[in-house]
Amino acid sequence: MVLLHAEKLAVGYGGRILLKDIDIRLKAGHILTLIGPNGAGKSTILKTLSRQLHKIGGCIELDGRALEDFSPQEWARTLSLLLTQRPHTERMSNAEVVESGRYPYTGALGLLGEKDLQAVDSALKLLHIESLANVDFMHGSDGQKQRVLLARALCQEPRVLVLDEPTSYLDIRYKLDLLQILRQLAAERQLAIVMTLHELDLARKVSDEVLCIKDRQIRAYGPTEEIFEDGFIEDLYDLPGSYNSRFGNPELPPSEGPCKIFVIAGNGRGIPVFRHLQQRGLPFATGILHANDSDAELARQIANALIEEKPFCPIGDESFAHAVKLLDGMTTVICALEEERGDYGPGNERNRELLELARRRCRMVKADLSDL
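The structure corresponding to this sequence follows.
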């Protein structure tokens, strides 16, 4: 069931359009993440969807009703909003901040009943901050404040949750914890969640759909796996390096300059070597790697030259001859493979032959990277 629907939506400030032709169809239980460069208009869309800003054109419907048809109190029970700004409170405990999320239900006197207190307690436990309930909100860390404010938003028991950079200020543990909670809430409470994220790896893990914005235009909108395809993220962010669409990793570009180092690798053994060389700005070539090897995945992004072989096939004459030719221009060969670990097998036996060839040709063969 489509819960949140926007059609031909135009958003902006003071009647001036920043983005237009925004179409969204978000189902209950689904998470939509907005991604794109800073200043693209992601937060403006969130503020318009949540009635913080007036839309300039188009329509927004929630469960078939126009946003304008909701009274303020009814709207507060339907949608919760968490923006990046931090409120400044005067001597309010974390529990009292969370309790403020129940005001749409408490009436004019603002008195909390048993159901309200249960909702507060549940939100505190869900965000793992029950031990901080009596701590002054202003005395908490940025990460603690973020969790308190999210607990307040959940206390409203909304049908739609709108979050602007909810993982800001959180360490990696609480980022993953938060995303797990959001997925749980979406499924169990059939919440529709709209948020912005800068961490593309997290956006890919948690989102059902992604809306991409750049240069005041909607560049793409669709299922997550369709968005994170080869080449699209690099273009969206004008990356100086590359983006691994399979694993969600951005990478710096290969080091510049003459390539004089060859790395014999495979079975994932080359990855720490590749990282070491790139961090020191040393261009390198590598091979002979099977195309399905994790070493090859990284080498395609950061190596200056890569020799590949087909998956599950022994190293053939053509790729071996290519490696030998490339080896002639190198001054140093680093072998990441070790006999004792069983790194050689029928599939890559010729890498041992390549190593012996390097030794016979008096190339500097190394395993220790300390002096590179």
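The first helix runs from residue 42 to 49.
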